[in-house]
User: Fold these one by one.
Assistant:
Number 1:
Amino acid sequence: MEKRALIIGATGIVGGNLAQHLLACGDWGVTGLSRGRTAAHSGIDSITADLTSADSVTQALQGQRFTHVFFTAWSRQATERENIKVNGAMVRHVLDALGPAGTLEHAALVTGLKHYLGPFEAYAQGSVPLTPFREEQGRQPVDNFYYEQEDRLFDAARQYDFGWSVHRPHTIIGFALGNAMNMGVTLAVYATLCKETGQPFVFPGSSAQWNGLTDMTDAQLLARHLEWAATSPNARNEDFNVVNGDVFRWKWMWTQLAQYFGIDAAPFDGETRPLEHRMHDAGKQWSAIAARYRLGEPDIGRLASWWHTDADLGRPMEVLTDMSKSRKAGFLDYQSTSDAFFALFDRLKAERIIPA
């Protein structure tokens, strides 16, 4: 049987880049499963289903045969208890629908560094492991829907006899529209607003992030990591951190981003100034900018996720990730983080999302 991939969330920042990578490999058939609110990329077959409903998923996948499934989407709920209930069920529904056919060889789950930091409502509370984060540090003693998703994955792998991998990226840089967790596009929109309205390009985060070391994950590198783990015996039944491989301080990166957009980086005075509290008029401003430059997306809500960028840049501690486990297993890929930002910005210009 040829390699046939089902991507849960194929229109998102992770799933979309993964789909394009697998299609470029030339030996994958790719199908996306989503709620159908966003059009799938060219070349991808589409299945629409409500992932929170076992009946909907079962009906949508009836008669389908896949060798690999990639979970790249989640559903944000009001509380972590609800996150656990809903997101764990989504994994279970898909695997219970696919498992009995006996064709599934591998299932990959994308989570993130909140595995170590804790969920949003208990973010960085209690005992956070020493950085760099390493896979052997394990779980934290807090409720976390990532753990529920993992447990449902492990249970199904035992029941239906397939391999698995878990992937923990840091903040992801990549092209996607309408994505709730997208720092790269958010910062591109913010820099454009500053340039067009004369606002200062102020770093919105904490002193710990401004001065400390950090890293990020390019969506295309993550796609290559997912494909590697799905086909490498060394990665079978393993969890992996996945980051670009370089480290930086935001006090340096902020200047690099400012230079790209031809603006000055405002001096940082140590005070955290969240974007969500300062962007009250951003929607009207962006609509005017979009009209002036004939941009493709006048709705700033489909581009910027102020809250998520604030959460990442406002962290009160160093967040840094170790990639030794992947390196030892054979994944040696690398991506310059500044180049990842610039490549994203170039594409946003080419796609007429921000002014050229």
Number 2:
Amino acid sequence: MNPRFRAFLQFSFLGLVLVVLLVLFPRALAMAELAAMELRYFWWVILLFLLAIWFIWGIGKKPRN
């Protein structure tokens, strides 16, 4: 199994789990829809999320020489 196929399977499984959870918990789906509609007001939350991801993967890496 090559790495690209394995990554595809992992993302597919993650998507399937997400869909099952949203079907099992309809209030979470309603919250996700509301959040998607209100994103224009909470754009700073997206920026904070992206900054956190950048810190998680950026901290601890050695600088290139």
Number 3:
Amino acid sequence: MIKILLILPRLKNKGIGGAEKSILNISLGLKKTEDFQIEYYFGKPNLIYQKIFKRISLENYVLIPKILLTIKKIKPDIIITQTRISFAATIAAKLCQIPIINIVRDSSDFCPKFVDIIGYGKACPRIENRKICYDCIRKWRSLRVLIGNKPKEWEHSLKASISNLAYMIRYFSCKLNLAILNKATVILVASKLIKSFLTRQIKSEKIKIMNITPIDEKERNNTTKKKKELLFIIPSYESSHKGLDFILRLAKEIPEDYKIVIVGNLIPDKKLSDIQTKITNFGRVPNKVLDELYQSSSITLVPSFLTDAFGRIIIESILNGTPVISSPNCGANYFLKDKKFLRILPIDLKLWIKEIDEIIKNPIFISEHEIDEIYNKFSIEKSIRDLSNLIKNLFK
């Protein structure tokens, strides 16, 4: 039996996100087999360290001593980790000479300003050098205002200058993160897109593309009538980089009898002042309600600006029988780009309006066979099986 230590950030009180849900579901699947024993460590830095180091993303490094003590106590054969705690976990694993699998969910730990946008609608291909990054950081001040992330004139404020300085310091944290990531035994990513982002700095042979975002099978409802609605899903945190302002501009151009349904976070009224009749806005909703919104919508919109390593929304929408318009920055696109129910467009307002109009006039039907095919590719069973084989191969 192989003993696995899963090292993760402490779970949030208000529920868990997609990254946590994915790895916990996979670990529970491994736990049910006779081949693996799973132990857990959930770490969170002291509040003082968070206040001092969070802005430059070094707060989790203070957990190294606790992780070392946990390793000494549990004596795992292998460690699996993900997100920001993974760099502390990797250092501890190397000190204890234990193999470690590092799951990379996004590019935020390798971009000094957290969001790898270098221009409106364009994701950065990778971290290059300090000169290029610093120039990008300076432009980011103005871009944040352009994409609706900050109010007008914010770029000339003292807060903007302090923010820029923190990003410039964080450049070195990102370089450190990349150097540590390169020490992992295996790096798991969800798509070719995120692999290409990392390969300039990381040894390519370490990086494996795998289904690390398993999808629950949906209760299929072919009787749900499509409404004249476009669905846009955002995270509960600030989400301009997910395309919120683009969607709000789009709302002014859609047909009068259509609405955009925004789910996941409540948008301030001042942003909706002139488009309230075109927007229906929900905060977080239960999964069952979300599935019903997918099923009743005509199209799901995914205008992500940054490198979205996978894009669970795309798969969930298709499994619920609703076509998707996506920007090129989503990893899931590359598994489905030959499918009629996925339209991949650059973030250009005119192109999206034209495509929406085309789909509205000529609705796209997603067959049961296509849904089965996609579910089998991204099922929890396949994810567990693939990770199980990877771990066993490391001990051959």
Number 4:
Amino acid sequence: MDKNLLSEQIEKLGIYELRSLARSMGVQSPTSKKREELISAIKDIQSGTLKPQFNNFGRPVKKLSNQNELLSHLIINGDKELEDKIKKEENDESEYIVFQQNFDSDDNPLNYNLITFKGIVRKTEKGSYYALNNLKIGTKTYVLIDDAQVKKFNLIVGDLLEGSAYMHSSKAYAKLNNIQYINGEVKENNIYDLDCELIIPEKYLDETLKQGRCKIDFVDGVDGSINYIEKKSKEYEQKGFKSIVLGLEISIETKLKLDRIENITEIVSLIEDEASFSYDKILDAINHANSMFYHNKNVVLFVLDAMSLYRVLDAVYKSNSIFHDEQVKYLIRKLLGSAKSSKTSSISNIVLFYDYQKNQYVNEYNDLLTIIKS
């Protein structure tokens, strides 16, 4: 590596490149130093204020010969959420790439284990970005997105991404390579407005739903809900509205039937046994609707169905169908409360309730009515 790199070039180097450069320039114990300390020491040696010291001790520089090896040594440093999902091998003492420090993989083969992916952007509590690939039913692949890529593509939480990623052959995660589409449009068009001024909506989507509002509709079971969504999404598309479906506790057959409806922009579905997974999916639906809203799109979010929503949240918060936990009610309020309208965009919500459940779940129905009217 060139030891005469300019200051701005040094700032862009990944942690492994910095360590390699620092060791070659005579910086002592580069593996024990933080990123800022490495940059400072390198610049001090360049300017002559620090004398280089060379010895044969210390850990050898790790050589990453291919993309697979890069992904073998990739972690989200200090982020509990993703550390639980992307675990280091037991007794593995090798150095790991700190993901937020944007390791430059340009020197690695670009065609190595490349996969296509589609997923909604998420952000953990510690600030790491990733998307869960939903192209394959029943599999989970976490596509990691570093800060430089977030800035490059101007991403926000809730954006629906389609592109390619480097997949580790034995792990459930991949590193983002490139994005082709954001919310169904070419990546260069990712322009949004986070300061949309909310207004009272005036336009009716149909005879019972006003733009930017929420309503409950009764349908005759699963097949009735599919027919309802197909009819309404077509009607709304003709008026310039995008349709998103949040399908909880749906079967693979139902998911495939929804996939065939051309007017649906995205289906956020849960075909899993893990209750905690449903919580993330509900947030995906909320965040994706908000992303479309900030991108000046009119959105209708279908919830399929009301009682599935209660059941999966009861499982998450260990409550029961007789007495729902406050967190269950809070998240349902958050989901339905996402309905809003501005001068250029809106989010409207439709909650589907099965006819045969109306008399059985009176309390839940009244709860939903209260939320919608508040």
